[in-house]
Write a structure and sequence with these properties.
The structure is a single chain. Helix content is about 10%, strand content about 40%. By secondary structure, the chain is mainly beta. It has two domains: about 120 residues, Beta-galactosidase, Chain A, domain 5 (Distorted Sandwich); about 45 residues, no CATH class. The strands form two sheets. Strands 1-6-7-8-9 form a five-stranded antiparallel β-sheet, with no helix packed on it. A five-stranded antiparallel β-sheet has the order 2-3-4-5-10, with no helix packed on it. Helix 1 runs antiparallel to helix 2.
């Protein structure tokens, strides 16, 4: 089974996701420039925090009593005030950055398709430009903990690119 499209993604919601649980990318499938928006699971807004409340156990018996007595609102207020960690919201996940590949090739693009193979988890972009068939595959390997981008063409020497990384994060 696969998801397939006949044009590159114009925005993030249209890009194809690949990932291995730690590393991820949204693949846009461009023909002049490929954009891979990268993600890594340890990159969150804010700093490390210990949200544990060591004294929370002191309130457990009272919370249980209120629940047994079906005093739901009182139990919830006590849980919110004395039991839940602070802050109670999860930190926001942050983008690592964009890997932009400016691709070699001239001429009109024809026979464009991008797909996500749901069985192999490979995002693939294929098109013909200047009589050359280009194939780009992106996947994430869980055993090797890497994101892989493979570019190929049916004409020797036709694959070329320059890479640039940008990030909203301070370096």
């Amino acid at each position: 089974m696969r998801l397939w499209y006949s044009a590159p993604a114009r925005e993030w919601l249209e890009a194809l996701p690949v990932g291995n649980g730690r590393l991820g990318a949204m693949v846009f499938g461009g023909t002049d420039t490929e954009r891979l928006q990268l993600n890594e699971d340890s990159l969150w807004a804010g700093g490390p925090g210990d949200y544990a409340r060591p004294d929370a156990v002191r309130h457990l018996a009272e919370i249980r009593r209120l629940v047994v007595e079906e005093k739901w609102n009182q139990a919830q207020r006590l849980i919110d005030a004395e039991f839940l960690g602070s802050p109670s919201e999860q930190a926001a996940y942050q983008v690592l950055g964009d890997l932009e590949l400016t691709l070699a090739g001239e001429g009109e693009v024809a026979h464009y398709e991008r797909e996500l193979d749901l069985e192999t988890a490979v995002a693939r972009t294929t098109y013909t430009r200047g009589g050359v068939r280009h194939v780009r595959e992106v996947f994430a390997s869980a055993p090797d903990q890497v994101l892989v981008v493979r570019l190929s063409a049916d004409t020797p020497g036709a694959v070329g690119f320059t890479a640039r990384f940008t990030s909203p994060q301070r370096s």
